[in-house]
Amino acid sequence: xxxxxxxxxxxxxxxxxxxxxxxxxxxxxxxxxxxxxxxxxxxxxxxxxxxxxxxxxxxxxxxxxxxxxxxxxxxxxxx
Length: 79
Known about the structure:
The protein has four helices and two strands; from the N terminus they run ααβαβα. It is an alpha+beta fold. The chain has one domain (2-73): Response regulator (Rossmann fold). β1 (34-38), α3 (46-56) and β2 (61-65) form a beta-alpha-beta unit. The longest helix is centred in the middle third of the chain and has 11 residues, at 46-56.
């Protein structure tokens, strides 16, 4: 995620949260255009974060990334 932040911060405002709960706090406080979530995060997985994000900000684009070949997580995210 840090490498994504370095790449994107040149043209975008980037907010990096350390876990899903702090990301939800950010979503409750300000409008976010795009959420990029790692499937394997501390305290909350990426699919759960994106589900909660959809409830809070339904128009926000959501992207799930993972460094693992977790096919079930990808299927859950798509559904």
